[in-house]
Amino acid sequence: MTRARVLAALLLASVLLSSCTLVPTSRTPSRISPAAVPLGLLGKTIPGTANGHVIFITQPVYIVDATGHLAPSSRIVPSPPTLSSVLRELILGPTDIEVGTGYTSALPNNLVVTQATIDKGVGIIDLTRSLASIPRQQLVLAVGQLTLTAFGVGAVRGIRITVNGVPEKLPLPNGKTAQLVTVADFQSLLNG
Q: How far apart are CA 93 and CA 149, in angstroms?
């Protein structure tokens, strides 16, 4: 019988405590004074910098649509966009909404770009591992994704992919390979 009393007492205590709260409630939102927000979080510049600020813009990246073609998709990147910042967004792959409509990426999930620069209109993308391990059709799409995305940030003469500084031979849709690939090489993969 003592177990039943202890259980009943615990149940009664839990019901009483559940009706209480440690946080005061209000029926309407309360306004917080801007002076009470710490660390300069409401300032127009980045806290802890000498007047630093960031402007964001949208930039196209190319992903694989439901028909297996390359299609542009907008991503938000800091302005001015760099090859590195845009490739970071490309590597993240399609958004959940895009995945729900059949979009994918031909790039491997574990792709790591060690450096991405543009030199005289040529994008040089250095990877940690070769892309040659993925199937050829997927590899052609992946190289197309990289080429078309890089074009949007200034790689107007094409891209070269290197692995630890060593140039890779890249497959083209026409069955040939090249070390320097251009947007013209991948026009046939665009949707439309």
A: 12
Predicted structure pTM score:
0.74
**Strand ranges (E), the chain:** 56-64, 70-78, 113-119, 122-127, 158-163, 166-167, 170-171, 177-178
Q: Tokens 């939102």 map to which residue? A: 29
In the numeric block, the tokens 């591992």 are attached to: 129
Q: Which residues of 23-46 are buried (b: 16+ CB within 10 A; e: fewer)?
A: eeeeeeeeeeeeeeeeeeeeeeee
pLDDT tens for each residue of 117-127: 999 999 999 99
Alpha carbon distance 105, 91 (integer Å): 8
pLDDT tens, residue by residue, 54-94:
789 999 999 999 999 999 999 999 999 999 999 999 999 99
Residue type, 12: L
Residue-wise pLDDT tens digits, 159-168 = 999 999 999 9
Residue 63: exposure state from Cβ atoms within 10 A (0-12, 13-18, ≥19):
buried
